[in-house]
Input
Amino acid sequence: MSKELNLLGVEDKIFNIVIPTREIVVVKKGKRSKSKEKVFPGYVLVNMILDDNSWLVVRTTEGVTGFVGAGLKPTPISDKEVEAIMKFVEQEQPKFKTKFSVGEAVKITEGPFADFLGTIQEIDEARGKVKVLVSIFDRETPVELDFLQVQKL
Output
């Protein structure tokens, strides 16, 4: 990116460009994989000196559609706000991300209840666990399972 900024003559005005992301664990088709998730989808933080040239370069960048602020110029955020955003991104532990929802019917694929059908009662994305209500002896019993142990019907 610095090469492009140099060609446009604003390398001394645009210091840093950050897309805040965090690492998450995604469960798809019974497999875990690590992935990056945008903390603020659609937003980019730009540390820059705002003048006519640097502003022109940023606002005419492909994909840029708007800015936070009122009127024609962006509103700067404080160093404290940037610090808080960066702390959030850096300190956040990996999160599990799945497409299960409470009340959804699932089939248990592993463990002692394999092939049982149940309904999701609770989702704990931080731990990658779901509590599934399983009918055992005509009684609904909650069973805690890993995301990998269930699949959607």
